[in-house]
Design goal:
It is built from 23 helices and 26 strands. The chain has 800 residues and is an alpha/beta fold. The protein has four domains: 173 residues, Chloramphenicol Acetyltransferase, CATH 3.30.559; 143 residues, Nonribosomal peptide synthetase, condensation domain (Chloramphenicol Acetyltransferase, 2-Layer Sandwich); 70 residues, Orthogonal Bundle (Non-ribosomal Peptide Synthetase Peptidyl Carrier Protein, Chain A), CATH 1.10.1200; 255 residues, 3-Layer(aba) Sandwich (Rossmann fold), CATH 3.40.50. It has a seven-stranded mixed beta sheet with strand order 20-22-21-23-24-25-26, sandwiched between helices. The chain has a six-stranded mixed beta sheet with strand order 5-6-7-2-14-13, with helices on both faces. Strands 9-16-15-12-10-11 form a six-stranded mixed beta sheet, with helices on one face. It comes from Leptobacterium flavescens.
Amino acid sequence: MDTAKKPKIEAIFPLTNMQQGLLFHYLSASHDQGFLHVQCSLKGFLNTSLLEKAWEHTIKRHQVLRTTVHWKNIEKPVQLVHPEKSMNWRYLDWKTYSKEKKEEELSKLKATDREAGTDFEQGPLLNITLIEMEKDVFCLLWPCHHLLLDGWSSNNILKDVFAYYQAFSEDKAPVLEALPSYKSYLNWTKTHDSSEAREFWEKTFSGFGQANLFDKRESKTEIKDAISDEIQLSEEDTNKLYSLARQLKITPNSLIQGLWTLLLSRYFESEDITYGTTVSGRSANFPNIELLSGMFMNVQAVRILINGNDTVSGWLKTIQDQQQQARKHEHITMDEVMSWIDRPAALPLFDSLLIFENFPWEDSQGGELEISDFKSGLTSTYPLTLVVVPGKHTKFKLLTFSEIIKPSSVKWFLKELTTLLHALAADKDLTLEGLSQKAEAPQKEVLKEKKTRSAVSSKNYVAPRNKLELQLLEVWEDLFGARSIGIHDNFFEIGGKSLLAVKMFSVIEKKINIKLAPTTLLEHPTIASIAEFISKGEQEENSWKYLVPIRAGGSKTPLFCIHAGGGHVFFYNLLPSHLDAERPVYAVQPSGIDGREYAHTSIEEMTSDYLTEMKSIQHKGPYNIMVYCFSTAIGIEMVRQLEKLGEKANLIVIDTMAEQESLMTITRIKMRLLTLSKRMIKTPFKALGMMFTDRYNRYVKPLITTLFGNKYERDLQQLKANLVTIYKKYEWKDFNDQVSLILTEKDDPIMNREFIRSWKRLALKGVNTLYSEGSHRTLFEEPDVKFVGERIENCIEESR
């Protein structure tokens, strides 16, 4: 006798990106947008025992009904298929209730189910309520969730239930078509060639600039359920819609899609319209995919261009042709599309949705039962969703979030949709401009997306402190299409959404080779907290001592800004905004700035340590090195050490002479005296003030700090003194390269000539001299920093 036990788990499958996004939303939002009720009406004699038996067989047939979802204490969430599961039944008798009472109780019941939520870890699709509304009239209510089931699938499952029920009622063996394997489908998606899809989407979004979006900035509260408004066409108008589609030789879907596009065009005052549309995901060339149940539904981007002089009829045919091409690629995710068209994941292509309810449901008979009024429920996370429900009386349902879309706009969309339908039916030869103008002017809640990468506003910006935080920052900046993100900025507060979170952790795994579940973000919503979470248990110390990322992201070679004599690098913070947006910028600060680290004893030792960290960011040259004031010696030593390693450096000197401490030569004494006399004649009080300030900072302030300063001030003063000491000890030698020297106009032209001469003596390949507006002391402040940034960028580009 075979006593082998059945396995506890039949299969383990990963969650798709969309499923992970829905799970993340389920865990992070107080209001679950993925929850829905599937329901239908049953009329006639009902054998509840046979109905339960029919469900038992359907549960065995469809793996998704035996599936649970798990995410705790594992790297990535998974769905587990169990060999056995059973349905939980609840029977209610409302026969004696009035019609109003039934509607009230049904609403309460749905609200209670929603509040209870979905138990993904036990049996998320295994609860059914059967309500007897009248004698032999029942309402079947089935709570579901989009994470596991789309509308097409719930329809498939109910059809199988009642096919089994009919067979059992007639005492026959059920005969249903064999289902394909979900595992085989997953393997097919991995091996399917996506080159054709990529070519289609790249062509579709070629030249795309900005998306037209609704303005969400006024929404201060959490968005809850969408508000539903609708209009129902008369039978005459419905017939008119279908007749018009036949005359134009297009489908009713293409006709409605065109009218909706024109409304959005009028609303946004744009000739380039994008929105999303739901697709079943069952157009793929995979055998019998239409029979599979699960979450196959996808959201597909639609982009339609409008030329007002084109005829409506020809334009509608173009829309239909485009959508027929798009249907071939229903299984392609938006993540893939966004990567192909090189668009940051956080910059949406659209924020409105168009849904055609086209599930293959037909009212049917099962034994003595009549099954009708199938409803799969509708959910949407978009501010505006148009749902088209075909039938004898076609319905247009508009789901909106009142926090974003005003009631006046809702009325406008519904009213003008029928206006355009009637106008086109009256004159099929209208141009697009002619038809569009038939609609009244709208009131708007529009947010124009900026074409350039935005800068996330961070009130308390903190730069990355180590390599891991820098790597995470680069991921965030690419996804958000933004700069100036700080390590303590909250992912959700700067615009992060559930699908973006899934994308982010996928990129982290690919680029950093670290696997994390997207749910990690719920407890660790900042770069700093994610990095700390990752670093727990790691022995390798990856903190930087010297590098300070001012702008970490970008595709071009970085600019390394060496500290001046004061040690600090904060004054460089305005510079990145005046360089190429793709240019990373790092400041280099000295060891010992916190009073704890070891202070270097020579320029050579300091340079070697700086280069070690710089090479961890940029593995090969040329290295763009900018020096200012007392960092000139470090710049020269970097060029010399890189040259020994076979690497090239691009040294950029900002308004500073070489060997700055060598002031006692005859030429420099004359230069200083002449400059001072000219300043005294031109602006005597300003000249005296500058002279006094210089002497005070050089001789008096250090003494005061030593006697009365706090620990931080004493540590900083000690650091400055050490920098001057090792600067004086440095042996200046020539080097076999060129220097770019950016100068400001001086009161005495002798000064700039001396600056140039000092560098020509060292740079054997010459000095490339550029001039910038401003003065030496304010070069990194507005507005002077703008001109300095332009000159620096010129130097880098010319050196390539």
